[in-house]
Design goal:
The structure is a homodimer. Chain A is built from 11 helices and 12 strands. The two termini of chain A are about 25 Å apart. Chain A has a 10-stranded mixed beta sheet with strand order 2-1-3-12-11-4-5-10-8-9, with helices on both faces. Chain A has 2 domains: about 1-105 and about 270-345, Isopropylmalate Dehydrogenase; about 115-135 and about 155-250, Isopropylmalate Dehydrogenase. In chain A, strand 6 (about 140) and strand 7 form a beta hairpin. The longest helix of chain A has 18 residues, at about 310-325. By secondary structure, chain A is an alpha/beta fold. At the A-B interface, helix 4, strand 6, strand 7, helix 5 and helix 6 of A face helix 4, strand 6, strand 7, helix 5 and helix 6 of B. Strand 7 (about 150-155) of chain A pairs antiparallel with strand 7 of chain B. Chains A, B: Pathway: Amino-acid biosynthesis; L-leucine biosynthesis; L-leucine from 3-methyl-2-oxobutanoate: step 3/4. Chains A, B: GO terms for molecular function: 3-isopropylmalate dehydrogenase activity; magnesium ion binding; NAD binding.
Chain lengths: ~350, ~350
C-alpha cells in the first residue's frame, strides 16, 4: 500500500492558517489506500527567539527522511532581516539542492488582475535555486565606516546552469506551445550572461521542437505587463527569477494564488512546496489569509510524488472555486479550505 | 551672453530620428540670447564595424569639454551583445562618474497604460549609476567546458551609496509628498543590503521631514502594478534600478515617453541625457519612433544646466500634446517633434 510521509512547517504569521487548509485539502483528495503521515516542525521566529537556532544539522537529518516538505511562511518583523531568510529558507534550499524553483502563473477566468483587458496568462517560470547572487558569497570590509566596501558575488557554474536549463527545456517540450524564453542580462553581466546563453544554445540542440528566445530581465518586466501571453516557459537565474515571479504573481491573480515548488528532481533530497507569499504578520491570526496558494502548492507536491490525478483534481477545484468566487465578498481562510476540500472529495 | 555647448550622439537605429526632434524642440525653446552649439559624434555600431572602436581616450577627452551630452540610442543586432553596452554606454557612465541615474515616471491624463483603472503615477527613481553589479568585476574560468565557473561581483561602497542616497533625499525633500523608498533585497544580499540600509538610515536623520520606507525589489514590482501611487521618490542600486525603471516606464505610458539623465551632480564631467528605450532596429528609418522620451530627456538636460523655465515649458508642451493625442492615430516622428516645437515656441 502507498504512503506519503510529509514534513509540515507552518512557520510564522499566516503560515499556520494556510498550511492547515492545505492539509485539509490534501487529506480530502488522497484515495483511501494512501496512508498520509505528517510530522510538524516548529521552525521560524518563535523557535529562533527561544533557542537562537534557525535550522540545525539534526533538523536537516530529520527532515531528510520525509518524502516531501510543505511550508507555510517564514519571517517576522521581530527577527532582523536576513536571519531567517539566510538561516532557514535559503539554507534548506541549498542543503537539499533544490535547484529547480518552479513557479507557474495562470490567470483564471474572472480572477482580478491589475492589468486592463484580462489578458491570457499561462506560463511557468523555472528559476535556478542554488546559485547566482544567492550563494552568500561576498563580504564587507571596514564595516560601519565611511570606507566600507560590501560585495555580493554571483556564482554560476556550467553544471548548475545546464541542469536547470535542461529541466526547463523538458518542461517546455511537454507543453502544447513548446516555447522557452531565457531571461538574463547578458549585455551587462557578460561573464554569467555568456555562460547562461552558451549553455542554453547548446541544450537547445537536443530539443529541436522547442522554440527559443532570449530577453533581458528589464525588458521581461515590460512584456509581463504589456504582453504576458508571449510567455510559455521561462528559465532564469535565482535573483531574476525572484523578481519576475513576484511580478508574474501580481499580474496573474495576485500573491494569494501563487504556488511554488523547490524541487530536487533527482529526489536525493525531499522537495519543498510553499506559497510565494510571505508570513503577512499584519493579517495573521484573523482568518483573512487566502489559502489557495498553499493548496496549489500541495498540487505541485502531489505531482512531484507521482499523484497526477489528485493534483489535477486540486487544480480543477481551484479553477472552479476562483471562477465562482469572482466578484463575491471575501471568504474566511477556513471557508475557502472547506470549499476546496469538498470539491476535491466530491 | 549665455551658451550651451552640446555633444550630440544620435547612435543607432531610431536614435538618429529621435535626436533630430529633440534638437528641434531644444532650438525652439531656448531664448534668443542663448547660443546653442552642437557637435555630433558617430559612436555606435557603424563606427564599431568600421574601426573596431567603441569609445577611445581621445573621444572621452573631446566629450569632456561639452556642457552636456544628448544621446539617442546605442545598440544593433550586428554587434555581439555586451560590446556596445559595456564598451560605450557603461564606459561613459563610469568615466564621467554619472552616479545619479534619474528616471521620472508620470502617467499623464488620457495616456494609455497596461494597468486597469488609470491609477495615479508620479514618482522618480534615483538609480545608482557607477557601482553594484555593473562594475564589470568578475570573471570566467574553464570557459566553454563543463567545469566553467562564471562570477559577477556587485561592488558597493559607503562613499558611492551615501552620495546617491543623499541626492535622493534632497530630491524627496523638494517634492510635495516628501517620501523616499529604499528598494533593495537586504534579506538575501545581506552584505550590500546592510550597507545600503545603514547608510539610508543614517542620512535619513539629516532629513527629518522626509518620510521613509523600505521594500524588497521583488515586492516593489508588485506595488508598481497594484499601487504605484505609493511611490514618490525611490532610491536603489544599479541593477534593481535598471529593472524597476523599465517596469515603471511600461506602466506609466510606455517606453516611448520615458526619459533619463545620467547625472554627475558636482559637474566635474558633463552629464548625459537619453531616452530609456533602445535603438529599436525593427522600426528604424520608418519615421514611426516616438521622440517624446528624447524631448523629455532634453527637459532634464535643461533643468540640469539651470534652464528651469525652459524645462517647464517642454514638460507642459508634452503634457498638452499627449493629452490631445490620446486615442488618436499614431503620428510620424517628425510630426510629433514639430507639434512640440510649435508649443514650446508659442
Ligand atoms: C524570502 C526570500 C528569501 C525568498 C527569495 O528571495 O527567494 C522569497 O522572496 C521567495 O521568492 O521565495
Ligand atoms: C543597455 C543597458 C546597458 C542599459 C542598462 O542596463 O543600464 C539599459 O538597459 C538602461 O536601462 O539604460
Amino acid at each position: 500500500s502507498r504512503s506519503i510521509d510529509l514534513a509540515v512547517i507552518p512557520g510564522d504569521g499566516i503560515g499556520q492558517e494556510v498550511v492547515a487548509e492545505g492539509l485539509k485539502v490534501l487529506s480530502a483528495v488522497l484515495p483511501q489506500d494512501v496512508k498520509l503521515e505528517t510530522r510538524e516542525y516548529d521552525f521560524g521566529a518563535k523557535r529562533y527567539h527561544a533557542t537562537g537556532e534557525t535550522l540545525t544539522d539534526a533538523d536537516l537529518d530529520s527532515l531528510k527522511r520525509h518524502d516531501a516538505i510543505l511550508l507555510g511562511a517564514i519571517g517576522d518583523p521581530s527577527v532582523p532581516s536576513g536571519v531567517l531568510e539566510r538561516g532557514f529558507l535559503l539554507k534548506l534550499r541549498f542543503a537539499f539542492d533544490h535547484h529547480v524553483n518552479l513557479r507557474p502563473s495562470k490567470l483564471l477566468p474572472g480572477v482580478a488582475t491589475p492589468l486592463a483587458g484580462q489578458p491570457e496568462i499561462d506560463f511557468v517560470v523555472v528559476r535556478e535555486g542554488t546559485e547566482g547572487p544567492y550563494t552568500g558569497n561576498g563580504g564587507t570590509i571596514r564595516k560601519g565606516t565611511e570606507h566600507e566596501v560590501a560585495t555580493e558575488v554571483s556564482v554560476n557554474t556550467a553544471f548548475g546552469v545546464e541542469r536547470v536549463v535542461r529541466d526547463a527545456f523538458a518542461r517546455a517540450q511537454a507543453r502544447p506551445r513548446k516555447k522557452l524564453t531565457l531571461v538574463h542580462k547578458n549585455n551587462v553581466l557578460t561573464f554569467a550572461g555568456h555562460l547562461w546563453t552558451n549553455v542554453f544554445n547548446k541544450v537547445a540542440e537536443e530539443f529541436p521542437e522547442v522554440t527559443t528566445d532570449y530577453i533581458h530581465v528589464d525588458a521581461a518586466t515590460i512584456y509581463l505587463v504589456t504582453d504576458p501571453a508571449r510567455f510559455d516557459v521561462i528559465v532564469t537565474d535565482n535573483l531574476f527569477g525572484d523578481i519576475i515571479t513576484d511580478l508574474a504573481a501580481a499580474v496573474s491573480g495576485g500573491i494569494g494564488v501563487a504556488a511554488s515548488g523547490n524541487i530536487n528532481p533527482g529526489r536525493e533530497f525531499p522537495s519543498m512546496f510553499e506559497p510565494v507569499h510571505g508570513s503577512a504578520p499584519d493579517i495573521a491570526g484573523q482568518g483573512k489569509a487566502d489559502p489557495t496558494a498553499t493548496v496549489l502548492s500541495v498540487a505541485l507536491l502531489l505531482r512531484h510524488l507521482g499523484y497526477d490525478a489528485e493534483a489535477d483534481r486540486i487544480d480543477a477545484a481551484v479553477t472552479a472555486d476562483l471562477t465562482e468566487r469572482a466578484g463575491k465578498p471575501a471568504r474566511a481562510t477556513s471557508e475557502i479550505g472547506d470549499a476546496l476540500a469538498a470539491r476535491v472529495a466530491g
